[in-house]
Amino acid sequence: MQDQQYKNILVGIDGSETSMRALDKAIDAAKRNQAKLYIAQVLKPRQSSIGQSSLGFGVVETDVDENNRLKEQQETIDGIVARVQGEGVEQVTGIVKIGSPHEELAKTIQRENQIDLIYIGATGANRVAQMFLGSNSAYILEHSLADVMVVR
Prior knowledge:
152 residues, alpha/beta, Rossmann-like_a/b/a_fold, Universal_stress_UspA, UspA, Universal stress protein
């Protein structure tokens, strides 16, 4: 593995402590390999959208605006990208999408950017959510074509 040269490194972040540790390790790997670093945050879709919905007791106004969610998260990712560039990684791309985090990280983003190494945090969601939803980390480990580093 010492001879392995990575060119395109992806790190998935969700704001959790372990995902931020994964980011730090991905930064180090990008520097060592002089690789391009992709920092991705995939937001799960919200159930409702702008408009009205009926819940049996009347009409409820909903105000989930996906474009605003994307814009807010893109600003956060842009700040992280600037920080990473300041730490010496020249080629950094921030990605914010709405979709299935494990599908996007293990397949779509990987394929679109020829990713050869993925860094992910071991846990992101709380333990109860993991029991019901499954683990993004486990899914990525099982389905990724790239090498995967799980950070604790």
